[in-house]
User: Which sequence fits this backbone?
């Protein structure tokens, strides 16, 4: 009995952290007990993470480098994932005519995104040690049924609660839209999340889109690739072009409702998204 009570007391000592995708709230001593390193402190910034030990290889996330975050090569895809999707027909393309030019539709400048992010975000951290002392709680975002998180080398998978909720809403709404378009079996990729000033500085050397005043430092911003989507290999594959437009419809509606600001990035093909509430 004493051993059981001691174990319970040790668990309570662990700091409460949130886990996104499903709204799960966990207590864990493993990651957050005082004196233990935070998960991301096990790597130097910019260092590629070691291969994860997985029960089965994830064959849906092929190698791609987007917005400065370099993904490590993944296991070779199965034959079902290599099937080339048929191109969009003129009839299908006409369904998305109301979107217009995506560069004009999603053109919220960094100036306004940063101002919005300052209201609900953390203060930029200069190093990993400051992650314990942010003014807002941080939510860890993980690969789940709605989206995949790419392996990250210039950012860390943490967001403030509002941004984590927005990301999950985008994932859920995207899945609903896929059903209405008979395009189930696909997920989008989150390619960049929270950055420190140090990682931004290094990223600027290889990516002109990165700025000193990056909203990624506030924990309010994440990038979603529109160039590549993941496929489960079981259902008919839809072209990335059509998936991009379906995702754009989802973002347009959330932006119109005042949930986010969006910038359509061309050189590093992604939607740069900042939560505003």
Assistant:
């Amino acid at each position: 009995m004493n051993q059981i009570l001691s174990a319970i007391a040790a668990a309570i000592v662990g700091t409460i952290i949130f886990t996104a995708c499903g709204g799960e709230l966990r207590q864990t001593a493993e990651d957050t007990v005082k004196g233990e390193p935070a998960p991301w402190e096990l790597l130097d910034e910019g260092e590629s993470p070691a291969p994860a030990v997985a029960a089965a290889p994830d064959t849906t996330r092929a190698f791609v480098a987007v917005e400065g975050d370099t993904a490590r090569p993944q296991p070779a895809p199965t034959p079902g994932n290599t099937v080339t999707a048929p191109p969009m027909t003129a009839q299908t393309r006409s369904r998305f005519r109301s979107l217009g030019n995506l560069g004009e539709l999603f053109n919220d400048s960094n100036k306004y995104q940063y101002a919005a992010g300052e209201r609900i975000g953390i203060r930029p951290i200069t190093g990993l040690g400051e992650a314990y002392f942010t003014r807002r709680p941080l939510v860890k975002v993980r690969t789940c049924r709605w989206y995949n998180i790419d392996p990250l080398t210039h950012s860390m998978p943490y967001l403030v609660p509002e941004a984590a909720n927005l990301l999950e809403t985008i994932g859920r709404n995207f899945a609903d839209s896929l059903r209405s378009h008979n395009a189930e079996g696909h997920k989008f990729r989150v390619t960049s999340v929270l950055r420190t000033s140090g990682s931004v500085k290094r990223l600027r050397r290889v990516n002109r889109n990165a700025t000193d005043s990056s909203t990624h430092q506030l924990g309010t911003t994440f990038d979603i690739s529109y160039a590549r989507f993941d496929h489960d290999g079981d259902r008919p594959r839809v072209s990335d072009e059509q998936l991009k437009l379906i995702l754009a419809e989802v973002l347009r509606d959330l932006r119109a409702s005042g949930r986010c600001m969006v910038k359509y990035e061309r050189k590093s093909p992604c939607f740069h998204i900042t939560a505003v509430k």
Summary: The chain has eight helices and twelve strands.
